[in-house]
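This part of the workshop introduces the protein records we will be handling. A learned vocabulary of local backbone shapes supplies the integers on the structure line. Getting from the letters to the tokens is the skill we practise here. As an example, a complete record with its sequence and its structure tokens follows.
=====
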Amino acid sequence: MMNNLIDTNFSKVKLSLFYVPSILLFILADFLCIHHIWTVDSYISVQKEAFLELNLILSHYSKWMENLTQLGDALVILSFLSPLLIVTPRICGPLALGSLISAVFCCLLKWLFSVPRPAAVLDTDNFVIIGKKLVGSNSLPSGHAITVFTTLTIILIAFMPKRELKKLVWILFFIIISAGISITRVGVGAHYILDVTIGGIIGYVSAVTGIICSQKYNLWKWIPHKQYDVFLIVLLLVCCGILFQKIIEQQLPVFYLSFVSLCISLYLVICRIIEQQRNAFLVK
């Protein structure tokens, strides 16, 4: 029943969904032109004060920042959502393709712009760094924001309600959640505000592109097939191992929650395999 809803919603995705990010990119380009932002230095300087102020405000909620920002890690957010993906496998194809597209965008743009991280150019005494200090030249765009918006946009569209009022509430809810998680990158001192904004737009575009391409070419139709359950168990066990290592190193609640979600997913897949074997035995 739920998978039928997902199929119906995905089939409604049209190119018109690119209008919103196109308008946002136009506004952003206009802002950059007005402020004569043609170089890396001007890109940093025009938002330096806003970054410092927002970082100071968000750093008061350091525990929240430290945990929520981890959801921008593809391993963590997909592990956290894994039971949902097991129960509703129709999401997996568009999510896989959307994630691949977003990864290409992210790597290409980081290499193209080579914007230094805040900690690489700003006085670290003037802002708060939570977690690991990042000093590379790969600030633009925010990979975490891309991951969050790609993943949550696909889920947003997949479970879109039919009624207009519920649809509006649903969209607003996901915008707040996605933006809230993404802005933690400013809170932990890892990215500028525009890094996160641009990353969010790219994530949305990647998600919609992933859905449209999956619907048209059906490239990832093999992912939900139950014959790959053994491979899925191996994948889940590997993710459990990586998350367990993260728990040992940092002991963050978000890692524990993601680990529990993976264990639930393992249980669901194993139960599915047992059910298949039992049905096959009864047929014989």
The chain has two domains: 2-222, 225-284.
